[in-house]
């Protein structure tokens, strides 16, 4: 029995949420013979509405018709809808299976999946592996939590490898999703508002990436991360464990020694000096290790890996140099939506820094940043509708702190506070939804404001 035949006996599919993942799931469902209905509580983007109309898939927006939803045998829900939403609790109480879009897509493919997760760095690592695959000329698709949804990729046709960035929200809704290579970069408190403010719930969610792996699969993990090493100790993991470390020399896996990356797999060693990496900072060395370990497990040539690492240009909105104005460097790190990401950004600053911070706080604990702010930050520009938590946390750390509520003002204030040789860093440590559509919108507005100075 093929994967397709196994699952199309469920005929009525309801997709909740009409964004990138929901639309992808609806298109794939229709292609596989399901009777599909999509329901979006907000406004449906015109491109998504058009894609559904072209395939004659019925949908609603601006609210959910619960009686319609309850006719489903299977529900695919958007990662944005929490498990404890009343509607989800209701459908589950009726015994209807609720899964995520990556689980739904995985049911229609037996291709090799490479899945990357972690609180931070997953977009950089996914983009770096994608770059290595392009240089190596490997047939693959890239997406998931970035770019095209997994369901959209499967809908569009076959491929050899499926490279996916996956979030904890997507992993919460899996039951059979099984990556050939899973990459676990780090686990730091993030999105705790979705996990009853319990860090152990978030850790359990991230560990789901390996739950269906077997001894033919690989789990690449950061052995410097205490939350990960503890979770691995207590879990019954069947995959082959491939650690990477910035701190200790390892017999197998990847480690840093004398400013050189060493990767030892399949009894062969790959080495490369860190100075040849165009993406800077300790966290990016770790990201490069994780990506090149993946390439090595897939037996991509060492020369190809080396060429790929030296030619990678980084990710938009992640420590992206925008412009130098009057000898002040403006840096866009809008993708830093949590404290840990901002920690990496501040840690990599080598000049006095005017720091633009703020947005929607996700239960942040700013204590970890105090010593870095004391050492590196000369002034703080708050950017949010409610800056009270940031003012309270950092009021005593810096001489100057200014509150703003739009990007143009924030950039203008930073321009006045910075002098030659300084950095102006947008690294918000918060979600963007108070003033912006998403972190990309926030990053683009920052770049436009800087260019308008």
UniProtKB/TrEMBL annotation:
UniProt GO BP: cell division; cell wall organization; peptidoglycan biosynthetic process; regulation of cell shape
Domain Mur ligase central positions: 116-294
Protein name (Swiss-Prot/TrEMBL): UDP-N-acetylmuramoylalanine--D-glutamate ligase
Domain of life: Bacteria
Residues of the Mur ligase C-terminal domain: 317-430
Lineage of the species this protein comes from: Bacteria, Pseudomonadati, Bacteroidota, Flavobacteriia, Flavobacteriales
Subcellular localization(s) per the UniProt record: Cytoplasm
GO MF term list: ATP binding; UDP-N-acetylmuramoylalanine-D-glutamate ligase activity
Catalytic activity: UDP-N-acetyl-alpha-D-muramoyl-L-alanine + D-glutamate + ATP = UDP-N-acetyl-alpha-D-muramoyl-L-alanyl-D-glutamate + ADP + phosphate + H(+)
EC number per UniProt: 6.3.2.9
Keywords: ATP-binding, Cell cycle, Cell division, Cell shape, Cell wall biogenesis/degradation, Cytoplasm, Ligase, Nucleotide-binding, Peptidoglycan synthesis
Cleaved signal peptide residues: none
Major place of residence: cytoplasm
Summary of the function given for this chain in its UniProt record: Cell wall formation. Catalyzes the addition of glutamate to the nucleotide precursor UDP-N-acetylmuramoyl-L-alanine (UMA).
GO cellular component: cytoplasm
Pathway the protein contributes to: Cell wall biogenesis; peptidoglycan biosynthesis
Family: Belongs to the MurCDEF family.
PANTHER family: UDP-N-ACETYLMURAMOYLALANINE--D-GLUTAMATE LIGASE
Residues engaged in binding ATP: 118-124
Name of the top EC class for this enzyme: ligase
């Amino acid at each position: 029995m093929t994967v397709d035949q196994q699952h199309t006996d469920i005929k009525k599919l309801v997709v909740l949420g009409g964004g990138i993942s929901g639309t992808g799931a609806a298109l794939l469902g229709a292609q596989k013979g399901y009777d599909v209905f999509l329901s979006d509580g907000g406004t449906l983007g015109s491109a998504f509405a058009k894609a559904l109309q072209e395939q004659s898939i019925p949908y609603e927006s601006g609210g959910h018709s619960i009686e319609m939803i309850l006719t489903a045998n299977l529900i695919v829900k958007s990662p944005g809808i929490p498990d404890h939403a009343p509607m989800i609790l209701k459908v589950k109480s009726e015994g209807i299976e609720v899964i995520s879009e990556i689980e739904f897509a995985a049911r229609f493919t037996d291709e090799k999946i490479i899945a990357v997760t972690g609180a931070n760095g997953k977009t950089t690592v996914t983009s770096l592996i994608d770059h290595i695959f392009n240089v190596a000329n490997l047939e693959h698709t890239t997406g998931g939590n970035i770019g095209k949804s997994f369901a959209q990729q499967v809908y569009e046709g076959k491929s050899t490898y499926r490279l996916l960035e996956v979030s904890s929200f997507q992993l919460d809704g899996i039951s059979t999703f099984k990556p050939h290579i899973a990459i676990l970069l780090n686990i730091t408190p993030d999105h705790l508002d979705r996990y009853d403010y319990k860090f152990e719930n978030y850790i359990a969610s991230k560990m789901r990436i390996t739950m269906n792996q077997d001894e033919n699969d690989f789990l690449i993990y950061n052995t410097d991360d205490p939350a990960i090493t503890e979770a691995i100790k207590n879990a019954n993991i069947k995959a082959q464990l491939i650690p990477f470390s910035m701190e200790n020399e390892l017999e197998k896996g990847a480690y840093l020694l004398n400013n050189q990356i060493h990767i030892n797999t399949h009894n062969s060693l790959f080495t490369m000096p860190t100075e040849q990496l165009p993406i800077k900072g300790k966290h990016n060395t770790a990201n490069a290790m994780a990506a090149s370990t993946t390439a090595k497990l897939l037996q991509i040539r060492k020369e190809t890996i080396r060429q790929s690492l030296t030619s990678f240009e980084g990710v938009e909105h992640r420590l992206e140099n925008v412009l130098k104005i009057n000898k002040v460097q403006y840096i866009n790190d809008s993708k830093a939506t949590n404290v840990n990401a901002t920690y990496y950004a501040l840690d990599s600053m080598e000049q006095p820094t005017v720091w633009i911070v703020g947005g929607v706080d996700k239960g942040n604990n700013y204590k970890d940043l105090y010593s870095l702010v004391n050492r590196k930050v000369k002034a703080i520009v708050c950017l949010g509708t409610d800056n009270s938590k940031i003012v309270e946390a950092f009021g005593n750390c810096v001489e100057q702190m200014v509150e703003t509520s739009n990007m143009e003002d924030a950039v203008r204030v930073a321009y006045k506070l910075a002098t030659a040789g300084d950095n102006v860093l947008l690294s918000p440590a918060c979600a963007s939804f108070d003033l912006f559509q998403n972190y990309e919108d926030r990053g683009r507005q920052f770049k436009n404001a800087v260019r308008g100075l």
